[in-house]
Amino acid sequence: MGAIMRKSSAANGNLRITGSSTVGGGHFDKVKVVGEAIIEGDLTCTSLSCIGTMEMAGRLQGGRLGIVGTCAITGSVQAESLKNSGTVTISEDAVVHKLTGSGLLEVKGQLAAKEVNVKGHIATAGDFEADRLRLRGMFDVGGLLNAGTLDIKLYQTCKANEIGGERIEIRKASLLHPFSLFFRPLASAKLTVGIIEGDDIYVEHTHADVIRGTKVHIGPGCKIGVVEYKEELTVNKDADVANKRQV
User: Is residue 233 part of a domain?
Assistant: First the structure.
């Protein structure tokens, strides 16, 4: 059994877990896990660092969260920032101001963020909303993926029910520049989506039922049912668009 070290009071102190330990939740300044930890109850902290494995039965509210390893949370998460270099699973909704990292984030509810810059995999059962989204990797969104600006490079198969935004750019990643040994781009990488709506849209290797926008540019590898545009439409010779309508 590892050691548990607390400084000051439980309300204002730090919590450090080393080795393998089970503790209750509470209010702390800094929380650090090195090893294996089980936290039973809600946790509020200024910062949390996990190097190893953490299981939490409760809600997490924190400032800066850093995960290197595996983290499973049965409740909701609210945080100023989350840097994930491992695998994080959240059973309810998550609200994060800044989301970065290169791992897998699975949210079984809805995910909301201000700024997202991720090289990895994001999966949500519900909607995924952000002000700015930059993703290199893959995503699986069970609802609406919505952001002011979307800058996505497809490394593997991606899915969403709908995508919305002001500026949308979806490209296939270069096969010559993998960003890790675990997320190498696949030649078959593509996006499957029902509807895409935005102001300025560029897509590659995308299969969509409907695309609606002011300026729409359809790149190679696309298969689109209907494109509705207001001002401008270009279609690559290697793309298939069944119907085009200016509205």
Answer: yes
- Side-chain half-sphere of 227: how many Cα atoms within 13 Å? 27
Query: Does residue 5 carry a pLDDT above 50?
Result: no
Mean pLDDT of 63-77: 97
Instruction: Give residues with Cβ within 8 angstroms of 237, minimum separation 6.
Output: none
Query: Is the same domain home to 137 and 209?
Result: yes
Within this chain, do residues 53 and 168 fall inside the same structural domain, yes or no? no
Confidence of residue 174 (pLDDT cuts 50, 70, 90): confident
> Is 99 among the domain residues?
no
| Rg of the chain, C-alpha, whole Å | 21
Domain count, the chain: 2
d(CA 237, CA 234): 10
* pLDDT above 50 for 236: yes
What pTM was computed for the model?
A: 0.90
